[in-house]
Design goal:
The structure is a homodimer of 226-residue chains. Chain A is an alpha+beta fold. Chain A is 44% helix and 23% strand.
Chain lengths: 226, 226
């Protein structure tokens, strides 16, 4: 079955009924589906200006990396959500660049940057959508920043575990210490040390590539108490 | 001499020639000058939604604060620049709040939030200006975040000192250790320790409320070398 761009864009983009029929046609001509395997890079700071991405299936992770390889996750992009940072070249206001990787096998709906640049200059509603999406991500980044700057690490780790339990509805989380460290912008050693402390306290049981939460209330209490 | 809002807005806002004459009139009616003394708060997270601010004279500092009072400067707003975060209530996408203080005696041109909300709903160019301004600040915040996360402290402090020397064109900086700590999101003790190390190395001479840079090249070298 062929993918219906017209229908998808109509459902996804508030500007779709603000652009002309010929702009719609051109927009679709300049859009394509792109598949990425779990772990594959969708965009990196050295790469070219890819395009505007909407996640049709899967999930992306947007992160920054220091010279010595330390990663900090800024936010994730779930199904139905749009990411504008892989087309930051069309926004003069964006002067930073990020890594974007697929955290699951993903199918993206991509509109190429050069067309997007043209249509957003012609149509202020398209442009406004791009800036609105970017502003929304600003909020996500501020949240991450505040987590990193202001919370002590036991609290951050507990928040992470508790949020994952709620999100997945599973008490057994399939995740390595390294993955948690990347998520929280910390070192693997720090994560392992804190998890061992949690295990000793009877909050969790650690297995290879797995964290079992056995005392959800205790984890929650650490997460919310200042 | 009376302040000419019409002229000022025409010079400052790219949307000004996109709004109608009656919108212009209303815009001016809903705008006012506001004076703040150095150190005074312009906006805080507990306060109401103030309005869109353009700095006519002076300078503002935008920062966040943890529960235990630690501050991190996100960016500064200089003369001619606009800040939209004191009117974040009109943007659904902004889910965080900030402190804004005057770092010098300042005169601001303010347009109140309720009118701005109305006109930005009626006129996509006004709305687009607000989101563009916010996106620009996103870049500044990312820069701060990367500084905080990725640079070692000697490098961050050296960068700060070197930037101040360039900015003020003075080798003697009037600033307390506490002010530097707030600027860099660090503790005063850490700043004092590193400054003493710089003094011992002959890079700076410390006096009460003052840092004299005596070896600018050495400071620059620390700042730029990885």
């Amino acid at each position: 079955m062929e993918f219906n761009f017209q229908q998808y864009f109509n459902r996804t983009f508030p500007f779709w009924n603000r652009i002309t029929d010929s702009q719609k046609e051109e927009y679709i001509q300049n859009s394509f589906l792109s598949n990425f395997k779990k772990g594959q890079f969708v965009h990196d700071p050295m790469g070219q200006c890819f395009g505007m991405l909407t996640v049709y299936k899967g999930q992306l992770r947007v992160f920054i990396q220091s010279e010595n390889g330390k990663e900090v996750t800024l936010y994730r992009i779930d199904e139905g959500e749009t990411c504008t940072l892989a087309t930051s070249c069309i926004m003069d206001e964006i002067t930073f660049d990020v890594f974007i990787e697929a955290t699951r096998d993903s199918t993206l709906v991509v509109t190429n940057s050069s067309y997007l640049n043209r249509v957003s200059e012609d149509n202020v509603y398209v442009q406004n959508f791009i800036y609105k999406q970017t502003t929304e991500k600003f909020s996500s980044v501020m949240w991450s920043m505040q987590q990193i700057l202001f919370l002590s690490f036991d609290k951050r780790l507990a928040s992470y575990l508790y949020d994952e339990v709620i999100r997945t509805n599973e008490s057994s989380l399939v995740v390595t210490h390294d993955e948690i460290a990347k998520e929280l912008g910390s070192a693997r050693e720090v994560v392992s040390r804190m998890l061992k402390y949690f295990q000793k306290e009877g909050f969790v049981i650690l297995e290879r590539g797995k964290v079992e939460i056995v005392n959800k209330d205790a984890i929650r209490k650490i997460a919310i108490e200042s």
